């Protein structure tokens, strides 16, 4: 009988039993590296700047400047998001551990209490304080969610201010907040009314720094440039801007000015860029600011980062967006 010997014997493949407790790669398995070989180095991510930025926000920001810092949030043009910025930045500062007093300086057309959900708790205003009808602590409305955030309204809806009310009265109010028994707040944020009339002049009088809110459209930029000149004439040199309602799809299609274009036109330091977000309308109607949403939205995160930069008197740098290369067709060889 002729027997055939296989010179390449096949070894049976080990079977993997999923029900067994001993797996070929269990948690106790340790790879063995010979002395002549070195263990592979761990993979390092390429985006080191992104990692650093995430680690930066894991610490508490350091408060820069003398306290209390009186910041006015203005724009000149109405409807660009001044009150939304005041509510979200103010609550972001409170969440960071700083005491905040937000003053709604819009006479007769106040809306800050609506965005904060405090409209039913405003019983006294600054007008009653000046008339001697109540104390200052009675006019301050403390937020139940964050006890270090307080709201102060100038007047009630559809009411008129006394003839003598002006910038001096608001300066007296800010001085009274600085010297109250509970302690001076870290931030006094003033929500400025639209326009550049007497209400605007009154709101910016006690401020020593300003946040200019604008949108990337021509009408808003022209009003913002005018307001910048008025702020500088009033002695306010620390002016930063927030570009609101930015849409990257329209910027790529050359239908909207980029943030870099806005910064070059106004020549101001950039505090934050807020993307267009449909959640803004929902949060406004509910009286629940964006920064309190869980999970957070893109606009809410942008407001929190803007508040962080405001604390440390920092700014961000706008970058130019790279355009995607256009697809070349068959007739591109002939210049088509």
Can you characterise this structure?
With 336 residues, this protein is of the alpha/beta class. Helix content is 32%, strand content 13%. It contains 12 helices and 8 strands. Helix 8 (218-233) links the parallel strand 6 (209-214) and strand 7. Helix 2 packs across helix 12 (298-311). The chain is globular and about 55 Å long.
Number of strands: 8
Shape: globular
Unreliable stretches? 1-5, 13-31, 33-38, 43-55, 330-336
Q: How would a textbook summarize the main sheet?
A: 8 strands, mixed
The pLDDT mean sits at 83
| Gyration radius from CA atoms, angstroms | 29 Å
Q: What is the element layout, followed by pairings?
A:
Elements: H1 48-56, E1 69-74, H2 82-95, E2 100-104, H3 112-116, H4 126-131, H5 136-139, E3 141-142, E4 149-153, H6 167-178, E5 187-191, H7 198-204, E6 209-214, H8 218-233, E7 238-246, H9 248-252, H10 259-266, E8 269-275, H11 279-286, H12 298-311
Parallel strand pairs: 1-5, 1-6, 2-4, 2-5, 6-7, 7-8
Antiparallel strand pairs: 3-4
Helix pairs in contact: 2-12
């Amino acid at each position: 009988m002729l027997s055939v010997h296989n010179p390449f014997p096949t070894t049976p493949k080990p079977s993997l039993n999923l029900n067994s407790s001993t797996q070929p790669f269990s948690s106790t398995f340790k790879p063995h590296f010979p002395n002549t070989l070195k263990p592979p180095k761990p993979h390092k991510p390429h985006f080191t700047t992104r990692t650093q930025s995430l680690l930066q926000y894991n610490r508490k920001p350091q408060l820069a400047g003398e306290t209390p810092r009186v910041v006015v949030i203005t724009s000149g043009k109405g409807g660009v998001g001044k009150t939304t910025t005041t509510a979200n930045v103010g609550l972001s500062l409170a969440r960071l551990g700083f005491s905040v007093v937000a003053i709604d300086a819009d006479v007769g057309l106040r809306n800050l209490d609506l965005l904060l959900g405090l409209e039913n708790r405003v019983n006294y205003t600054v007008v009653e304080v000046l008339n001697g009808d109540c104390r200052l602590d009675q006019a301050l409305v403390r937020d139940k969610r964050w006890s270090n955030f307080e709201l102060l309204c100038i007047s009630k809806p559809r009411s008129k201010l006394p003839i003598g009310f002006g910038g001096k009265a608001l300066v007296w109010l800010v001085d009274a907040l600085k010297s109250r028994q509970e302690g001076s707040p870290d931030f006094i944020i003033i929500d400025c009314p639209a326009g550049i009339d007497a209400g605007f002049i009154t709101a910016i009088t006690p401020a020593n720094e300003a946040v200019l809110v604008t949108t990337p459209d021509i009408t808003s930029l022209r009003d913002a440039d005018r307001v910048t000149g008025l702020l500088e004439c009033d002695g306010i040199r620390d002016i930063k801007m927030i570009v609101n309602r930015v849409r990257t799809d329209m910027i790529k299609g050359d239908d909207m000015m980029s943030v870099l274009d806005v910064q070059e036109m106004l020549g101001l330091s950039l505090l934050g860029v807020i993307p267009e977000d449909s959640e803004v309308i929902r949060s406004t109607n509910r009286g629940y600011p964006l920064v309190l949403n869980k999970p957070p939205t893109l606009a809410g995160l942008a407001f929190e980062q803007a508040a962080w930069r405001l604390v440390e008197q920092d700014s961000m740098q706008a970058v130019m967006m790279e355009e995607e290369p256009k697809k070349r067709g068959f007739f591109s060889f002939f210049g088509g």
